[in-house]
Specification:
This protein is mainly α. It is built from 10 helices and no strands. It is about 65% helix and about 0% strand. The radius of gyration is 17 Å and the shape is globular.
């Protein structure tokens, strides 16, 4: 997802803008395009304000307030989505759209020790961080959410994130592992679920399933 520049001066402005993004759609009979647009706007907006203190070398990225710098802030953001009319009336559409966005993040195919991220890479990891938190928290009460992740063949993307894209980003690694654990606990994964990432994930999958 491409980055968008926002100018907000206070936390109240941030939360107010977030509410506006996810509120209007549920007031009528939204089309699939309406839901898609609202979900993507939510992810884009939240990702723009995610704290990234462990990312180095982002001198070319404008510094903005990090209103989602803590785990509690991110959970509050997810709760706002769950309580919105957008989610209440279109939960399955929202879930599938979130998974679809996560799958479109371009995978990295080689390990690297490079800690400097491009602007596009930073936008991607911030978006994934928000999406995985939403899916993880939703999956705590909705088993079907975890099954959707497997059904839509999102597991290889998550493995790639865990082993490649989350380099140096402990928060993204944490939520990816937590989400993977929940998926593995709900259903044991097979080779067909892991795709080309089988060799990387097989040991992790067995360990998580035992846990």
């Amino acid at each position: 997802m491409e980055g968008v520049h926002y100018e907000l001066d206070t936390p109240a402005q941030f939360w107010g803008e977030l509410d506006e993004i996810i509120a209007p759609v549920g007031s009528s009979s939204p089309t699939d395009i309406d839901v898609q647009s609202a979900v993507r706007s939510f992810v884009r907006f939240a990702a723009a304000f995610r704290g990234t203190p462990r990312c180095l070398g982002e001198a070319d990225i404008a510094c903005i307030e990090q209103y989602l710098a803590s785990e509690e802030d991110v959970e509050h953001c997810c709760a706002a989505l769950f309580d919105s009319q957008l989610f209440i009336h279109n939960a399955d559409k929202v879930r599938y759209e979130l998974i679809d966005i996560a799958k479109t993040v371009r995978p990295l195919f080689a390990r690297t020790t490079r800690l400097i991220r491009t602007k596009k890479e930073l936008v991607d990891v911030n978006s994934l961080h928000i999406i995985y938190w939403v899916l993880f928290l939703d999956g705590q009460t909705e088993l079907e959410t975890l099954r959707k992740i497997r059904k839509t063949k999102c597991i290889p993307t998550m493995v790639n994130v865990l082993w490649r894209r989350a380099r140096g980003d402990r928060d993204l690694q944490f939520v990816t592992l937590e989400l993977m654990f929940e998926v593995c606990r709900s259903e044991r994964l097979g080779e067909e679920d892991l795709g080309t990432q089988t060799s990387l994930m097989w040991g992790v999958n067995n360990s998580l399933h035992i846990l």
